[in-house]
Design a protein that fits this description.
Oligomer: single chain
Order of helices and strands: HHHH
Radius of gyration: 17 Å
CATH architecture: Orthogonal Bundle
Distance between the termini: 40 Å
Number of strands: 0
Number of helices: 4
CATH topology: Non-ribosomal Peptide Synthetase Peptidyl Carrier Protein, Chain A
Shape: extended
Strand content: under 5%
Helix content: 25-40%
Largest sheet: none
CATH class: Mainly Alpha
């Protein structure tokens, strides 16, 4: 997969299960699915990332600082994928706003 897909589309982990929890309507219940499947918390999965590359430029350092605060992740490298760190569309909006506000004062 890694050779033919973009980095953000390559699964970090694949878990095989006999069945998934479904609602009365037959749809997969995604809320709490990771807990029900016994998957590791986000901080534990970060250890399987690619080699860490620290932020170097002023912009990289600023974005990493904002992401650390927003996502509650200790080490953020320049090659880390936003979604793999726990980011989603809502946190992307917060990131955009935080970066815009802080950028004015830098």
């Amino acid at each position: 997969m890694a050779q033919s897909l973009a980095d953000y589309k390559v699964p970090v982990r694949i878990v095989f299960v006999n069945s998934l929890p479904v609602s009365a309507g037959g749809k997969i219940r995604r809320i709490g699915l990771a807990d029900q499947l016994g998957l590791a918390p986000r901080e534990q999965t970060l250890t399987s990332r690619a080699a860490f590359v620290a932020p170097k430029t002023e912009s990289e350092i600023l974005v990493a600082a904002i992401l650390r605060e927003l996502l509650q992740v200790s080490d953020i490298g320049v090659n880390d994928a936003f979604d793999a760190l726990g980011g989603n569309s809502l946190t992307a909006l917060w990131l955009s706003r935080a970066f815009t506000r802080r950028r004015r004062f830098v």
